[in-house]
Amino acid sequence: MRDRADFERYVEQRSDRLLRTAYLLCRNWATAEDLVQTALAKAWTAWRRVGDDPDPYVYRILANTHATWWRRRWRGEQPTASPPEPAVADAADALGSRAAVRQALACLPPRQRAVIVLRYFADLGDAEIAEILGCTPATVRSQASRALARLRVDPAARSAMSLEG
Question: Of 12, 18, 91, 93, which is most buried by a Cβ count within 10 Å?
């Protein structure tokens, strides 16, 4: 995976999955699109060094960039009394289960949310998640366990999840 054609093929095949993963991390479609674009731009600059399986590398960029943005809390935009253009309704809001999952994920701290999203929505194993997040597989398992326990106990998360079933 060292040339432009490989990168373009990778982007065509994986951008939808990367976008869904990014959305579950940040819970905003516009920010998720920016996050994926930034992650792919960073991946392109290092594409010659990426091995045969670029997924762990790109997911790590995605998770680290999201963490950086979350810590920095960008203040470049100023709120106004009325939005400059009308808001577009999110089609996913029409489905109750998707909204319930988003609400439940919002109840989790960023690190636990990243583990849950990468494990259950990106279908990655503990070792891959650990590599992406820069921790050990045992830490991934403990974060997943804590997140699932929190989702079972937290009334807001439990009510959000009860809407799903």
Answer: 18
